[in-house]
Design brief:
The complex is a heterotrimer of chains A (636), B (114) and C (170). Chain B is mainly alpha-helical. Chain B is built from three helices and no strands. Chain C has two domains: 110 residues, NADH-ubiquinone/plastoquinone oxidoreductase chain 6, subunit NuoJ (Four Helix Bundle (Hemerythrin (Met), subunit A)); 44 residues. The chains are: A mainly alpha (636), B mainly alpha (114), C mainly alpha (170).
């Protein structure tokens, strides 16, 4: 299984080749190189998955394999940083997700980005991103994960700012980078605390179920929480930043300024679920050492899901709707993890969260790619510029509809199964929370069909030229992803990924399943009534709840709050005084020293006039003074 | 009555400090050089007088004077060669223009014509 | 009233010449006059040497100084004639020069007058020429062949250096 290291190295090599030689290659060639290399990576991932799931089971439990590991930095015998590959059910599952979506995006981009400036740069960045994301999920220790975590952040930054001539794109890339970087600070501190007390970075050791390694931290508390709880909460902060959990979600909607395939890859399917993956990776630690943090994760996830779903209902930019939908769905996954127990039926939430991650990656990538095809056709992100496109874009229409049905939770599409499992788990945890999550599911169905009808039905907007279907390079990935979406729900996911890696058979809870399908159907019908044809109901509703509507349109003013806090309080209150101190005291001291030196130099430079006669005067005066001293002071 | 040695020495002192005064005040390089000759001459007289009055049997002072004269001649020859060269480059031989060791940018040296 | 001997009269004359002309050498504004006054000073110095019975020294002084160096000065003055015939002097420099020279002269004069030298053993008579010759060309104690040779090498070096420096670059 040593070949798994190639899964990381191959995209890295592609990045180097395209990054260094890209300017010399033809755009088409570099695209082909990138896609081809990604194809091989995907094949390797599938092979890995096949070999792993057929070979790693011992007594019905999947073992954790480390097929490749090198020691990189050694601090003590116990504490060293390795670079390597860890295979276990979730990492293999993530491999499949990432390489599939990445391959689809690579193929899709051949059509979508055709003729763009910096085509080879785009592919180089895509490869870099794939490399770092794959390295992240394969990391056998938390420190390697952190390294690749940051690399993912960088490549996300580069790709969001791909159109670097657009000021909005620049601002968005900076915002994404700064917000996630801020969250990563918490992650790093969390890692340090964790490793300080456990003397290890290793996931295997951390999740082995051996409680003795946490013994050292047991008695230590800080501000009312155990130190392990703080460490895990801080680590979750990093995950919340990458996964756009409230209140660190503000960067994700803006990140839509990047090219649409990038949004599909990074901001829907892979990078944003890194936080979920992180929690899943450390799940036993969370569950056994800090259950209160796990509960907090559940509530944050639920609130984020609700919050984002409400906003998604009123946004008019289709990519933003999808962005908020993504936030909301990641919230679902977080809730699933948060309410989960460990092992057997208690671990349902864990399994459901991972399942939803899998299915969501597929159909959300499909939605984004479909949105890309639509934008490609009408050259606008705004719903008002669309409408009635179903005749012009038949393939996009069908695949988009499939994705919408999947996310709304209509059987037999994949979203139904995973969401249903999540709802079951949440109901088992707390019926009250289950009700909330069901409501969010209904909202999801509503806003997705609002989006769908506004794009493909409704009043056709005027276009400069008739919208036409995207080229085959773009529709092929759509069809593939749609096919996956149709069948992914029937994968016996519990056989592969569970909290304790043991077999678990999924069985649908008829009450929950029926209820969720029912409310999804109701929501779809409502959306149909509102948006299938031009209707005055939405406008009237918006007027009735004008306050809520306006607040939701402005994303509940979270950005403004951030701006207020940073600009007014931090910049004015703290930074400006520090800046004043720096400018006047620190710089002043330096400038003062320089000024004094200069003054002194000016004062004595007269001595070095270069005039020999002046030197002679000084010399003679000195001689005379010395003579006087010698004669009258010493001799007398 | 013999002439006191101090008179000769006082003569040398006056001559020497006349040379010092000239060295400090004159602007022309040749005038400066002339002042230096005065200094040397005063020293020569001192040598000869000390030899004559204090150690009449010896010849050291006299030889020092002779060598000093020879060196003065050599020095003058080289100095004048330098002065002539300076004159070629700067078209004058004023001491205050010779301060290029101080700041190279301030003095503009005329281009040497072939 | 003290009677002036010939010797004293000669010394008085020579010292008067030296005093007056050395001061005029450094105070005159015309460079050519300055050189001429220097010539007078050098002549008078030669006279002093003669008076001290150093005839050889006086002859050397006349030959090299008065004959050689002054001629060099005159030539170089003529060669480097500047726009300003007169050499202007700056007030500050004059003050500095006067101060330095004055203080130095007073100091040295005072020291000379107050210091007690050993007893002078003035012996009359010319030094024989062959004694000078032996001292100069001998290699023993108090003989000066080595400095003599060193001086000749120095002179040779000065000739070459002078030619090299003053030579016109193509």
């Amino acid at each position: 299984m040593e070949f798994t290291i190639l899964i990381v190295l191959l995209p890295l090599l592609t990045f180097l080749v395209l990054g260094l030689l890209g300017m010399k290659l033809k755009a088409c060639t570099s695209g082909l190189i990138g896609t081809f290399s990604m194809g091989i990576t995907a094949l390797l991932s599938y092979a890995t998955a096949w070999l792993y799931f057929t070979g790693a089971q011992v007594d019905g439990v999947y073992q954790k394999w480390i097929p490749f590991n090198i020691e990189w930095l050694r601090f003590t015998d116990a504490l060293h940083i390795d670079l390597g590959v860890l295979l276990d059910p979730i990492s293999v599952m993530m491999l499949v997700v990432i390489s599939t979506v990445s391959l689809m995006v690579h193929i899709y981009s051949m059509g979508y980005m055709k003729g763009e400036r910096g085509f080879e740069r785009y592919y180089a960045f895509l490869s870099l991103f794939s490399c770092s994301m794959l390295g992240l999920v394969l990391a056998p220790n938390i420190f390697q994960m952190y390294i690749f975590w940051e690399l993912v952040g960088v490549s996300s930054y580069l790709l969001i700012g791909f159109y670097y001539t657009k000021p909005e794109a620049i601002a968005a890339s900076k915002k994404a980078f700064i917000v996630t970087r801020f969250a990563d600070l918490g992650f790093l501190i969390g890692i340090l605390i964790l490793s300080f007390y456990t003397h290890t970075f290793d996931f295997l050791t951390l999740t082995s179920g051996d409680h003795s390694i946490f013994a050292e931290a047991a008695g230590t508390t800080f501000m009312g929480g155990s130190v392990m709880a703080w460490a895990l909460a801080l680590i979750f902060m990093g995950g919340a930043g990458k996964s756009a959990m409230f209140p660190l979600h503000i960067w994700l909607p803006d990140a839509m300024e990047g090219p649409t395939p990038v949004s599909a890859l990074i901001h829907a399917a892979t990078m944003v679920v890194a936080g979920v993956y992180l929690v899943a990776r450390l799940f036993p630690v969370y569950y056994f050492e800090a259950p209160e943090v796990l509960a907090m994760i559940a509530y944050i996830g639920a609130f984020t899901a609700l919050f984002a779903a409400v906003i998604a209902c009123v946004q008019t930019d289709i990519k933003r709707v999808l962005a908020f939908s993504t936030i909301s769905q990641i919230g679902f996954m977080m809730v699933a993890l948060g309410v989960s127990g460990y092992g057997g039926h208690h671990g349902l939430g864990y399994m459901a969260g991972m399942f939803h991650l899998f299915t969501h990656a597929m159909f959300k990538a499909l939605l984004f790619l479909g949105a890309g095809a639509i934008i490609h056709a009408v050259h606008s992100n705004e719903m008002s510029h669309m409408g009635g496109l179903r005749k012009h874009l038949p393939v996009t229409h069908i695949t988009f509809l499939i994705a919408c049905l999947a996310i709304a939770g209509i059987p037999p599409f994949s979203g139904f199964f995973s969401k249903d499992e999540i709802l079951s788990a949440v109901f088992a945890f707390s019926p009250w929370l289950g009700g909330v999550m069901s409501f969010i599911a209904a909202l999801t169905a509503f806003y997705m069909f609002r989006l769908y009808y506004n794009i493909f039905w409704g009043t056709p907007a005027q276009h400069e030229h008739t919208p036409h279907e995207a080229p085959a390079s773009m529709t092929t990935p759509l069809v593939i992803l749609a096919a996956v979406t149709c069948v992914a729900g029937f994968i016996p996911f519990g056989k592969f990924v569970t909290s304790d890696s043991a077999d678990y058979t999924i069985h649908l809870d008829p009450f929950v399943a029926g209820m969720s399908v029912g409310i999804a159907l109701i929501a779809i019908i409502v959306a149909t009534l509102f948006y299938r044809k031009a209707s005055s109901i939405p406008v009237r509703l918006a007027q009735t709840f004008s306050g809520l509507h306006r607040a939701a349109s402005h994303r509940f003013y979270i950005d403004e709050v951030y701006l207020f806090v940073t600009k007014r309080i931090i910049f004015n209150g703290i930074s400006s005084s520090i800046a004043w101190f720096d400018r006047h005291v620190i710089d002043g001291a330096m400038n003062g020293m320089a000024f004094l030196t200069q003054r002194a130099a000016l004062a004595i430079r007269g001595f070095q006039s270069g005039q020999v006669q002046q030197y002679a005067v000084v010399l003679l005066s000195g001689v005379l003074i010395l003579t006087i001293l010698v004669v009258f002071l010493l001799c007398c | 009555m013999e002439i006191q040695m101090q008179y000769y020495l006082l003569l040398g002192v006056v001559m020497f400090f006349a040379g010092v005064y000239g060295f400090i005040t004159r602007r022309n390089l040749i005038a400066v050089l002339i002042s230096v000759e005065l200094n040397l001459n005063a020293v020569d007289i001192n040598f000869a007088v000390f030899n004559r009055y204090l150690y009449p049997g010896e010849l050291e002072g006299m030889f020092f004077t002779i060598f000093a004269i020879a060196i003065a001649a050599a020095e003058t020859a080289v100095a004048i060669a330098i002065i002539i060269n300076v004159y070629r480059n700067l078209s004058n031989i004023e001491v205050r223009n010779l301060d290029q060791l101080q700041e190279p940018t301030e003095t503009t040296e005329p281009e040497e014509k072939a | 009233m003290m009677e002036l001997t010939l010797q004293q009269a000669g010394f008085a004359f020579l010292s008067a010449v030296i005093l007056v002309f050395s001061v005029m050498t450094v105070t005159t504004r015309r460079i050519m006059r300055s050189a001429t006054y220097l010539l007078f000073v050098l002549f008078a110095t030669a006279g002093i040497y003669f008076q001290l019975d150093y005839s050889f020294l006086g002859a050397v002084q006349l030959l090299i100084y008065a004959g050689g160096i002054i001629v060099l000065f005159v030539f170089s003055i003529l060669l480097t004639r500047s726009q300003r015939e007169k050499d202007p002097v700056r007030r500050r420099k004059v003050v500095a020069g006067l101060l330095t020279a004055g203080v130095g002269a007073v100091l040295c004069g005072g020291l000379l007058c107050t210091h007690l030298f050993g007893p002078s053993q003035l012996s009359e008579g010319e030094i024989e020429m062959h004694r000078i010759g032996y001292a100069m060309m001998g290699t023993g104690k108090y003989q000066y062949l080595l400095p003599f040779e060193a001086i000749s090498v120095l002179l040779l070096a000065c000739i070459i250096g002078g030619v090299l420096i003053a030579r016109k670059r193509k």
